[in-house]
Amino acid sequence: MIINQHIPIMSNEILSFIDKEKKLSILDCTFGGGGHSMKFLETGHSVTAIDMDDYSQSIANKIKQDFPNFSFYKINFKDIDTLQIKLKKFSFIILDLGYSSNQLEDNEIGLSFKINSNLNMNYLGGNITAYKIINKYSKDDLERVFHTYGEINQSTKLAKYIIEQRSIREIKTNFELIEILKNSGVNFRSKKIHFATQAFQALRIEANKELENLLTFLKKVHNLMENKAFLAVISFHSLEDRIVKNYFKSNKIKKNNSFQNSKNWGFENLTKKPITPSNSEINKNKRSRSAKLRVGRFIN
Ligand SMILES: C[S@@+](CC[C@H](N)C(=O)[O-])C[C@H]1O[C@@H](n2cnc3c(N)ncnc32)[C@H](O)[C@@H]1O
Asked: pLDDT tens across 74-87, in order?
């Protein structure tokens, strides 16, 4: 039986950009549990969805039985141009970045610091795991990962401590790593979040190449957009949000109708400030609290 634990985020806010009278052709680049895709399908739109996740594929196979205007492809969105749909253009493209609640609960993936999994954290089927980063990376690389992706101030101290500990014995599980983080003497940033949050975020971003995937995708996405199409991106950490913000900024349409990028296309920024979930949504779904939605309208 397929159990879907993922609750879609800011669905109403996303649907508010769509004219109810129009039937759109939508590309959902992060299908996950299919929450957003289902909202689009139920309101009569056609959806092409992608995700690298096997469980997402099973959910998609079920949806296909009820909606003939739905298709699914298992690929990394950074490779979107290699897909057979490449000549097709869409009127709405959505990315809801990161991992789904189904993946968070998956013992094999091991994203949670509440479950004692083997160190992995790779939810996109790539070959970098948290085990490899923690046990094999050089001091400089460990420092880079913790500093750049975890924004940990004492990343040098943490890298040195991990190298010391792994020379005593391999670090194999999430709980072993948490113990090491706890004993490292590093001052983790916030009292409000679990002390392992920044380190786990750093490892997850590195293992899945999250930022590279997003940057590569953004270099290609304009080829897939119809004139006046929408690009909606939900991000969950400041590093991703900054990339999306800068993308819309560097490709914006200027007052004299020329484009910032000197090309023949650009974006009207529809969210000068990112949209965030309402308090009632946050109360119902804690995972939504760090979400930020930015939307641009493609003009060419
Ligand atoms: C936050 S969930 C999306 C949830 C979905 N919008 C819903 O409402 O059910 C993110 C999904 O994107 C997928 N994903 C993240 N990065 C990806 C990438 N580079 N290529 C393909 N899928 C990716 C993950 O596997 C995960 O299933």
From this structure: 999 999 998 877 56
